[in-house]
Amino acid sequence: MKKLTLTCLTVSLLFTAGTVLADAEKSIEYRQSVFNVTKWHMDPLGGMAKGELAYDADAALHHARQVNAMSHMAEEGFAEGTEGGDAKADIWSNWDQFSGGMEKFQQVSAELVSAAEVGTLEALRPAVGEMGKTCKGCHDNFRD
Ligand code: HEC
């Protein structure tokens, strides 16, 4: 009986450890996916801003909206205990700063949507520049 109890305990401990590991892996996969979607939509905006891609007001608005949507999805991929990937451990030791960076991501991408709604390249260009700086600012601090 004692042995059986111990076995059950061992199995449940192993199971718990396994679950935690799987969660971290899933979180890393989730947040990297969100950022890859973000990049998918930022690239054409960057191309238009640089004049490498023909300006298309409808496409710009679509892409800006998707970047803004992603800005609301990224943070939940960084739950406590999900260290790994290219995320620096500083994220969790400086959570307020990181979380502030996520808020900035939301704000600046909302301004990007407003700029895209104007419907001119002149309005779009500086907003894309600000967005790019915001991506880089967080990567410099929190990405390996
Ligand atoms: C508040 C912080 C923050 C902001 C803002 C941010 N990122 Fe990131 N980004 C990260 C972190 C942290 C990682 C590393 C995630 C990991 O590997 O676990 C990352 C990873 C990435 C990756 C690599 C994904 C992969 O497959 O490994 C891409 C691409 C990316 N970000 C694009 C962007 C773009 C484009 C923007 C701006 C529109 C942006 N990010 C804004 C923090 C941020």
Automatic annotation (TrEMBL):
GO molecular function annotation: electron transfer activity; heme binding; iron ion binding
Post-translational modification: Binds 1 heme group per subunit.
Cellular component GO terms, alphabetical: periplasmic space
Residues given in the record as heme c binding sites: C135, C138, H139
Keywords attached to this entry: Electron transport, Heme, Iron, Metal-binding, Signal, Transport
SUPFAM superfamilies, per database record: Cytochromes
GO BP field: electron transport chain
InterPro entries: Cyt_c/b562, Cyt_c_II, Cyt_c_prime, Cyt_c_prime_subgr
Signal peptide: 1-22
Top-rank taxon: Bacteria
The protein, known as: Cytochrome c
Organism for this UniProt entry: Nitrincola iocasae
